[in-house]
């Protein structure tokens, strides 16, 4: 392992030194070079010892120059106290071409001094993109170092979701599976976790409190587990959800029922720090509704409800506000509403995936092989009456993992062309969401202690692809 560490850090020449277990960065600018590309590749595709050495090196380099995984919770609670506002945090699910996509995020962020940005991956996405948490963190750090981004990294476990069918079969086992995933994520540097027990909401119950009971009881249980799993000096930002995305729209009354029940349940665990935000449903769906020609149906977003939910979440409960899922397929003119309405956070994913799959620079031969793989391996995604266009649009995310090496191995010019269009899209979103200049808020409200690398134990858990959350 030591030989691999020395060799990988030696790629930076004299700009980086290994001193025992410590990394000394003598010239931080040298990190924005091709050597970081090699570390990113090794962190993903290297043999076991080399891969682990590369992940260690990236972690320690990030710690040395301030590119450290961090919790956004203190900023969110400051917003709940009225100390800041007027922006909406984008939570970006990085599924495909992860290194190049993240580099595009950081380029767009750096020129705008944007710091309030979340990079996330959902339980289901971890499986079908073949990106375990430790790998994901290493790639995000590498991308930030490569682009000269020098702010905390807010890496989030999106939709740590309870599968309702598996819960019905054995509640304890399913809740334990979610806890195992969260433990792996926190160990890897995911200091922001979205707990999604909204799948357990039962609208057949006679009162809102009873409808939300399993949701808030298990959300409180998992919150307490998260507090016990935190590394020293870190308070993980936790989110919860009151309305499953793609289903019934949320109401203020449901928000109150959940929060009052959740707070009472937390007291049973000694009243640990609770959630900093609340996800709601206001008309969107993950990935959008696909029409027969492969286009996406127009979304009817209830902006009035979103504004009311955010306002009550802040005023009555001290949260940062409401979180909007399923936003990436909204029309461009919709994004300007979120910051105006003081929406705390929106989740974005499918459009970035579509940019890659549909990009003219993507070799047609590779796309053809990926679609052929879907024909052979993803027919369960095809519903009766689906056109080919609907099938491929919905199913193609399943090909990301099996073709990850092919995508990472595309010629530099191809990846650069795709990345340039991704950067333009991220820049547009950051401008619409008013996160430019939030680096100053991050510096004001965030403190970052050094965190040691935790090693191979961080990536020992395997999660099943049993939940289709993710935008």
Low-confidence stretches: 285-291, 457-470
Q: CATH top level of the largest domain? A: Alpha Beta
Instruction: Determine the mean pLDDT.
Output: 91
Number of strands: 10
Shape: globular
- What's the CATH topology name of the largest domain? TIM Barrel
Decide which structural class fits the backbone.
alpha/beta
Annotation field: number of helices: 19
Terminal CA distance reads 38 Å
Provide the spatial order of strands within the biggest beta sheet. Answer: 3-4-5-6-7-8-9-10
What is the architecture of the largest domain at the second tier of CATH?
A: Alpha-Beta Barrel
> What string gives the helices and strands in order?
HEEHHHEHEHHEHHEHEHEHEHEHHHHHH
- Can you say what the CATH homologous superfamily of the largest domain is? Aldolase class I
Quaternary structure type = single chain
